[in-house]
Amino acid sequence: MKIRKILLCTDGEEQTAKAEDFAVGIARSTGAIICSLYVINPFLKKFATEIYAVGRDEYRDYIDKTLHEEGNKALKEFGDKACDQKVKVIKKMRYGSPEEEILQEMEDEGYDLVVIGSRLLADWRSRFESYNLPEKVFKKAGRSVVFVR
Fold first, then answer.
1. What's the start-to-end Cα distance of the chain, in Å?
2. Predicted confidence band at 129 (pLDDT cuts at 50, 70, 90)?
3. pLDDT band at 97 (very low <50, low <70, confident <90, very high)
4. Which domain holds residue 121?
5. HSE-up of 20 (CA within 13 Å, CB side)?
6. How many distinct structural domains can be found in the chain?
7. DSSP letters of 22-87?
8. Which end of the chain is more exposed for a tag (fewer CB within 10 A), N or C?
C-alpha cells in the first residue's frame, strides 16, 4: 500500500502531539501530504440557548470566536512543526460532531491513512466519562486508522 495522503485529526491537546510526530515521521518517509483536520464541536454552543439573559448573543459570538481561535492555533502550531520537518500540510477546519466530521472527511477525500491521538483510559470511571472518539471512529472507518498514545 502506497501512502500518499494522511489525515491527522488534531485538537491541540497533549495526547495529540505524539500523533502529530507519528504522522510527520510517516509523511517524511513516504513523501505523503498530511491533511491536518480540526473539528469545532458545537456542543458548548448548545447551552447558549438555555441562557435567557441579556448578553446571550454576545456569549454565542464569544464561544464561536474562541473555538475558531483554538482551532486556528492548533492548526498553525502543527503546520509550523511539519514545515520544520519539510512536510507538506493542508489545514482544514470543520464544524459539527467530531465523529461525523472525521468520517465524512475520510469519505470525501479518500485518505490512505488516518492518524488520531488517543489517551489511555485507565479505569471504569474515565472510560464512562470519556467520549472516546478514537474508538467511535475506528468502529465506523473503512480505512486504515492508527491510534497513537
1. 24
2. very low
3. confident
4. 5-148
5. 24
6. 1
7. HHHHHHHHHT-EEEEEEEE-THHHHGGGG--STTHHHHHHHHHHHHHHHHHHHHHHHHHHHHHTT-
8. N
* 74: its cell numbers: 492548533
Locate cell 479505569: which residue? 123
Where residue 53 sits, what CATH number does that domain have?
3.40.50.620
- pLDDT mean over 35-48: 79
Q: For residue range 43-73, what is the model confidence (pLDDT) as tens digits? A: 766 665 565 566 777 877 888 899 999 999 9
Residue bearing cell 467511535: 136
Give the contacts of 45 (CB within 8 A, at least 6 positions apart): 60, 63, 64
pLDDT for res 132: 64
Q: In a 10 Å sphere around its CB, with 0-12 CB exposed, 13-18 middle and 19+ buried, how is residue 30 labelled?
A: middle
* 3-state SS, residue 142: coil
User: Which DSSP symbol is given to 8?
Assistant: E
By C-alpha distance, which of 129, 90, 63, 67 is closest to 5?
Answer: 90
